[in-house]
Amino acid sequence: MIDEIYFKIAAYLSNPNFLRSVFDNRFILILMVVFLVRLKYATYSSMWMSALVNVPGTVLHELMHFLVGLFLNARPCNFTIFPKRDELGNYVMGSVGFRNVTFYNAIPSSMAPLLLLVLGFYANRYLLPLMPATLLNYTLYVLGQTILIENAIPSRADFKVAGMYLTGVLLYGFLFVALLLSF
Length: 183
Prior knowledge:
The chain is mainly alpha-helical. It has helices at residues 2-14, 16-23, 26-42, 47-71, 106-110, 115-127, 135-151, 156-162, 166-182, and strands at residues 76-80, 84-85, 91-92, 95-98. Strands 1-4 form a two-stranded antiparallel sheet. Strands 2-3 form a two-stranded antiparallel ribbon. β2 and β3 (91-92) form a beta hairpin. It is globular and about 70 Å long. The termini are far apart.
């Protein structure tokens, strides 16, 4: 009896028409993302549960800082993904320290997590079409994209570092405007 019910449900969830209706439904996509974000925030009452849920995104976020800082000679000197409390009592999930922050590397090093958006874009364009169309694959895809996009957002501390050098802000502001005008 239970086997029959299981196989009927599995057959329905594997039905191409059902899968197409799920994949093409933006409401279900948004519902999944909101559910995942709510689930994440529900873990915030426990520092260790929060850390466990945030580890994949924290590693990616801090790795972007580290790699761009290394490439631009900001000399990363520490890398941590273990949560700790700051002076205001808030939890800091991870951090990267630099020994050589200058006008030319402060903005790229601090805004480096934005590169995760590029990674998410290419995963969407090139990896998603290669995945077999199953409900599990779609759920994992939404989870992965949610992690990438949410952790691409620079923190307040990142914005503070980015604004440390007026020369750098003017330099990258000019380059950004020039890039926009070239289109």
